[in-house]
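User: Here's a structure from my thesis project, written as structure tokens. My advisor, Dr. K., wants to see whether a designed sequence matches the one we expressed. Can you design one independently, without my sequence as a hint?
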């Protein structure tokens, strides 16, 4: 089961990931409060690397409605490993992940990093909205995985 942190974008994305079939041996939850990373700053730093003629990427607080879950097909069962993963990606206006933006910013285990990527990829999102139009939004999702003993 995933539990979300109240930050709008992180909470929205954590809620999206909460529908993943994690199986009885894994508990995972968003952990932005403990990640030591300012998620807005992580997205802002990424956005600063995009050429000015590129598509606009919005941050949390710059949109009227943050990204939300549309549909998810859960990936295979997760690894039975304790650890955490911090991922960053952009949700495009069509609700799909922009894989050129996807990055594992930090991970305690390569197997968890691969699983986090599968989990993000198994989801179709409702894009962020600004003035009634879908827009690209950067999301940073910290996840803590605890394998039940």
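Assistant: Designed independently from the structure alone:
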């Amino acid at each position: 089961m995933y539990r979300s942190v109240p930050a709008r974008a992180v909470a929205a994305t954590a809620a999206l990931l909460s529908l993943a079939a994690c199986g009885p041996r894994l508990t995972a939850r968003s952990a932005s409060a403990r990640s030591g990373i300012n998620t807005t700053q992580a997205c802002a730093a990424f956005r600063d690397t995009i050429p000015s003629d590129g598509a606009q990427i919005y941050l949390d607080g710059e949109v009227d409605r943050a990204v939300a879950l549309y549909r998810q097909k859960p990936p295979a069962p997760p690894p039975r490993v304790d650890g955490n993963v911090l991922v960053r990606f952009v949700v495009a206006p069509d609700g799909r992940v922009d894989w050129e933006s996807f990055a594992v910013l930090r991970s305690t285990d390569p197997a968890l990093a691969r699983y986090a990527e599968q989990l993000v990829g198994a989801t179709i999102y409702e894009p962020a909205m600004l003035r009634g139009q879908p827009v690209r939004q950067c999301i940073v999702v910290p996840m803590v995985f605890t394998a039940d003993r």
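When you compare it with your expressed construct, this may help: Residues 110-121 form the longest helix (12 residues).
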